[in-house]
Structures are given as structure tokens and as C-alpha cells.
Amino acid sequence: MNVSAAASLRLELSLVQPVLRSAAARMWHSDAGLPGRYRHYLRAMHQVIRASVPLMERAAARCERLPQDPLSPPLARYLRAHAEQERGHDDWLLTDAEASGTAPCELTGSVPPAHVAALVGAQYYWIEHSHPVALLGYIAVLEGNAPAPGLAGRLARETGLPQAAFETVRLHADLDDGHSADLDRLIGRLPLDPARRSLVAVSALHTVTALAELFDRIATAPHVSESAHD
Fold first, then answer.
1. Other beta carbons less than 10 A from residue 110's beta carbon
2. Nearest to 120 by CA among 3, 203, 185, 179
3. Nearest to 211 by CA among 123, 133, 149, 103
4. Is 227 part of any domain?
5. Is the Cβ–Cβ distance between 138 and 56 less than 8 Å?
6. What's the CA gap between 167 and 162, in Å, rounded?
7. In the chain, how many domains are there?
8. Mind listing the pLDDT tens digit for each residue in 180-221?
9. How far apart, in whole angstroms, are the C-alpha atoms of residue 29 and residue 25?
10. Average pLDDT, integer, range 5-16
């Protein structure tokens, strides 16, 4: 078993974790702008999460075109199964947005900004032009930084928005720890050579940087009045 690959990735991520945590803390800072920032967060995360299942399906299909690659069969199985676990999570965000007073069409109809495209789009490049194992670095970051268990309740109290507007935050706080453990076990089983380990790490570190930028943009964006629902 390649146990050290999972441990090595987690160690590398621990070194940059403060950057992401600081950006998240700025985004969730308690002030009058928090309701608007939360609505902005729902829109941005919908743009990110609606790509999750298509990314995993694309990566699995690419694996299935590489049958002689020893990584591909177990990786494809994991990605197909995980895609089913994640299916519909973008719809949760639409429901939360509606509960927060934002029409779902404001999420589905908005143009994703360049920093969202940079976060997600790098994965398409690595899947097609390097190896689909890169996607594991992306997944490791997104699921390894689950919302804190008490965040949904705090946001509901401090924004004055209904509890129903925070279901995605609440559910991911419960689900993502288990998903991270599954991913670590997979990485431990995969026959990763140094080049593939490096690719997973590069993907993960890019994801940290891009996700921190996304949070910082939400934290510093000008917000319109509450009546306009950001």
C-alpha cells in the first residue's frame, strides 16, 4: 500500500491550510454585510459545484480510455461512485438561495467570473492533457475543508436568514469528513509513481490558491442593499 502518498499530500496541504482558513474567516466575518456575502457565496459555490459531477464523469471516461494504465480501473470506479454521491448537490444550493430570498435563476443565469473558471477549468486541462488522477488533488481540497459543524447555525443567527437557507453548509459539514477518509484510502491503494504524485499535489495546491482567491473576492466585493438581495 502506498500509505505515504496520502500522508504526504495531507502534510503539503497542512502547510498552506492557514491561507484558506484566513480567507474563509474574512468571508464569514460578522458585520452588516454578511447576508450579502452569504448570497454571493451561494452563487459562487453553485458555479463551482455544478461542475463536480461532469468533472468526475469526464475523468472516469478518460480513465476508461486508458485500460493499460494501472491507475485507471480503480480510479474510474472511485470517480463513478463518487459522482453519484455528489449528484444533485448543486440543486441544494438553488434551494438555499431561494430560501435566502434570491431567485434560483440569478445563480443559473449568471456568467461565471474568470477566477471561478480558473479554479475549475484547470482540472479539465489536466484531465485531458496530463492524467485524470489530477482531479484527486482538487477533491482533496474541497472535501478536506468542510464547513465547521457550527457554521450553519452561526450564519443563521448572524444574518437573520431562515435556517432553510443553510442546508448545504450543514450537510457538507456532516458528509465531507467521511468522503475525505474514502479519498485517503484510495490514494493509499493507487500505484502512484513520483510524476503522478506530483500532479496530484500540484492540482491540490492550485485549488487552495484559487479557492482562497474566490473567498477573498467574496469577502471584499461591494454589496448592494439588502432589498436587492446582492
1. 12
2. 203
3. 123
4. no
5. no
6. 10
7. 1
8. 888 989 998 999 999 999 999 999 999 999 999 999 999 998
9. 6
10. 89
